[in-house]
């Protein structure tokens, strides 16, 4: 039942060879990876006004221009900086890899944790803001706001589980529709002003205070949400068609120009139309003045709603790629590096959707409450990424390195200043949660990495371990298969046991790529083992099916009446939380194999020691262990 529903929602699985067709070029990469930053046009301007209006009243419409100009300058600094990141780190991972390679492991973990938090908040903020836009235009939907938010999270999750190519088609067209509708709003708004239209005076009853630097910095911090999503392009370079770096840099340049036109245009238009965002969503209110309750008014409202919802898709593209890179480095559970049926990182997609849905429920879909948590994470990653590139130029130099170092150094300085501004001005509004959460995530990631190091130490096979397989045995009327994922002490233990119960033993491996199979063959030869190794390639990443097909094949020559014992290697860890970090494929294999009456399943356990005991034997500081791994 579950498998049928899965096929209906997600579609047929794709083989590994289809991965090249699942990448996008500039046309579809632009809306997918820029929708987060572009959608900020819908709320960044109004968040600036939320800060300025209560303090300085009507003067807010003048000061917003200064704040917007500063944000646009910062945007182009980031664009130039991230173009260099794309050139030097084309395999994705963005700030995490840049910081780790150039500033050390701890800096990389901090960047990865901060960016992960930002991606999760992107989904919560974008969807909550999108629903705000639509309930402003269609007030009868207000009681169903949270239900709508959760439905849209589910919709985005399913859309992305269907694969990169399909999701780019689903979510790309609405992004272009939003760009054209807002461009039409800006042009029509200025044409209407030139034709003599005089906007109504806003009803502002706020007391007027002096314009202070602190006030402008606070507004600047709120408006910097317009820059979230800029880093997504550098994180997802591997998702582009070749030449990937060229396509990624083109998308980043176009993204910056679009934000410049749309964000700058709408905030400037707001200074003439004097919209008050407390009365509703800023763009929808402006559309009401420019177009009236005509067709274009509803087009602006609808496309704004859709782009804000689909802006979350940038996170669904960036977050799974980021955590997959971190999983390969073993700072988060390895399962997050595994691709699903449609060659997307499905575990990352599901986790992102689940945590975002929880945030929406906890904060009741309140955009202003969520926005206080929002930008600090991404600007921490901005700072570490630019600082990492700055250090890289100082070390490696190269052509025009002085200019490149200046760009990245200035970018690091400006984004660091923004981090301080946001942390101070928005600390009481919720930024304290992120300030506390990031260190906790960093601590958890370090624990995960140290656990994997301890496990690897205990499972590592050396040439001396070949003696473990030299054992006398009695012959049983039994045929034995030992499925091995890799060559380690757990699999050696299972093979050793197999030789005690039969002289007809086969080591069986399912590889999802040729490189993995090649490495296993080379390591297996090292043991000079008499047990033959059979490797089967699985283009659809299935484990059980190739094993059953092999048993039924002529190559295995199964005879009626034969009993087959499948010995599954398994290692057990000491702590409950460590179990989450490892695959439990053996449970599924055992359950399915026991459905066959001629197959006996045996689990051969290897009890691992506590991480602390293993790491203590190294006689090195933990930070040294992290650096040397």
Structural notes for this entry:
- With about 625 residues, the protein is mostly helical.
- It has 2 domains: about 30-450, Up-down Bundle (Amino acid/polyamine transporter I); about 475-629, Rossmann fold (3-Layer(aba) Sandwich).
- Helix content is about 65%, strand content about 5%.
- The protein is built from 24 helices and 5 strands.
- It has a 5-stranded parallel β-sheet, with helices on both faces.
- Helix 18 links the parallel strand 1 (about 480-485) and strand 2 (about 505-510).
- Helix 12 runs antiparallel to helix 13.
- The chain is elongated and about 95 Å long.
How would you briefly describe this protein structure?
This protein is mainly alpha-helical and 629 residues long.
Any idea what the CATH architecture of the largest domain is? Up-down Bundle
Structural class: mainly alpha
What is the N-to-C succession of helices and strands? HHHHHHHHHHHHHHHHHEHEHEHEHHEHH
In the residues, how many domains can be counted?
2
Helix content: 55-70%
What is the CATH class designation of the largest domain?
Mainly Alpha
User: Mean pLDDT, rounded to whole units?
Assistant: 82
Q: Strand count, sense and closure of the main sheet?
A: 5 strands, parallel
First-to-last CA distance: 44 Å
Q: Bin the strand percentage.
A: 5-15%
| CATH homologous superfamily annotation of the largest domain | Amino acid/polyamine transporter I
């Amino acid at each position: 039942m579950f498998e049928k529903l899965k096929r209906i929602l997600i579609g047929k699985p794709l083989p590994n060879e289809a991965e090249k067709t699942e990448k996008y070029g500039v046309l579809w990469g632009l809306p997918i990876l820029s929708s987060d930053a572009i959608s900020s046009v819908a709320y960044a301007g109004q968040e600036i006004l939320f800060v300025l209006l209560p303090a300085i009243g009507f003067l807010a419409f003048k000061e917003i221009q200064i704040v917007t100009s500063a944000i646009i300058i910062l945007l182009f600094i980031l664009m130039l900086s991230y173009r260099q990141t794309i050139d030097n780190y084309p395999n994705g991972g963005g700030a995490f890899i840049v910081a780790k390679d150039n500033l050390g492991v701890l800096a990389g973990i901090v960047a990865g944790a901060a960016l992960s938090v930002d991606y999760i908040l992107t989904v919560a903020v974008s969807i909550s803001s999108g629903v705000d836009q639509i309930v402003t235009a269609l007030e009868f939907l207000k009681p169903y706001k949270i239900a709508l938010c959760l439905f849209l999270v589910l919709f985005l999750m399913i859309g992305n589980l269907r694969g990169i190519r399909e999701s780019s088609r689903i979510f790309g067209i609405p992004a272009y529709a939003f760009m054209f509708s807002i461009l039409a709003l800006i042009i029509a708004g200025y044409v209407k002003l030139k034709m003599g239209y005089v906007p109504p005076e806003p009803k502002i009853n706020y007391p007027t205070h002096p314009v202070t630097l602190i006030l402008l910095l606070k507004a600047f911090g709120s408006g910097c949400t317009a820059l979230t999503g800029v880093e997504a392009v550098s994180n997802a370079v591997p998702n582009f068609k070749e030449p990937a770096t060229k396509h990624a840099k083109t998308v980043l340049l176009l993204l910056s120009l679009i934000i410049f036109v749309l964000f700058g245009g709408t905030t400037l238009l707001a200074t003439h139309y004097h919209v008050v965002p407390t009365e509703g969503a800023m763009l929808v209110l402006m559309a009401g003045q420019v177009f009236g309750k005509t067709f274009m008014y509803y087009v602006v409202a609808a496309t704004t709603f859709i782009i804000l919802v689909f802006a979350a898709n940038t996170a669904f593209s960036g977050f799974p790629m980021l955590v997959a890179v971190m999983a390969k480095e073993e700072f988060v559970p390895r399962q997050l590096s595994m691709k699903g049926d449609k060659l997307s990182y499905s575990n990352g997609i599901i986790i992102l959707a689940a945590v975002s849905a929880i945030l929406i429920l906890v904060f009741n879909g309140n955009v202003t409450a969520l926005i206080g948590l929002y930008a600090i994470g991404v600007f921490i990653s901005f700072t570490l990424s630019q600082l990492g590139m700055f250090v890289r130029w100082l070390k490696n130099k190269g052509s025009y390195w002085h200019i490149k170092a200046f760009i990245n150094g200035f970018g690091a300085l400006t984004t660091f200043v923004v981090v301080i501004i946001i942390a101070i001005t928005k600390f009481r509004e919720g930024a304290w949660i992120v300030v506390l959460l990031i260190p906790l995530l960093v601590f958890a990631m370090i624990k995960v990495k140290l656990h994997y190091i301890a496990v690897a130490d205990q499972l590592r096979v050396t040439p001396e371990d070949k003696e473990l397989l030299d054992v006398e045995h009695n012959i049983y009327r039994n045929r034995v298969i030992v499925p091995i994922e890799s060559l380690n002490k757990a699999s050696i233990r299972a093979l050793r046991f197999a030789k005690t119960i039969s002289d007809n033993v086969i080591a069986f491996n399912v590889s999802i790529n040729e490189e993995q199979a090649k490495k296993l063959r080379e390591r297996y030869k090292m043991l000079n083992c008499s047990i033959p190794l059979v490797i089967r390639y699985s283009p659809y990443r299935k484990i059980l099916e190739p094993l059953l097909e092999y048993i039924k094949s002529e190559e295995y020559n199964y005879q009626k009446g034969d009993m087959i014992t499948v010995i599954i290697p398994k290692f057990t860890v000491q702590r409950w939380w460590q179990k989450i970090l490892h695959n439990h494929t053996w449970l599924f294999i055992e359950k399915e194999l026991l459905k066959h009456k001629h197959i006996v399943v045996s689990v051969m356990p290897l009890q691992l020691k506590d991480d602390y005991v293993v790491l203590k034997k190294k006689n090195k500081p933990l930070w040294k262990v992290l650096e040397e791994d």
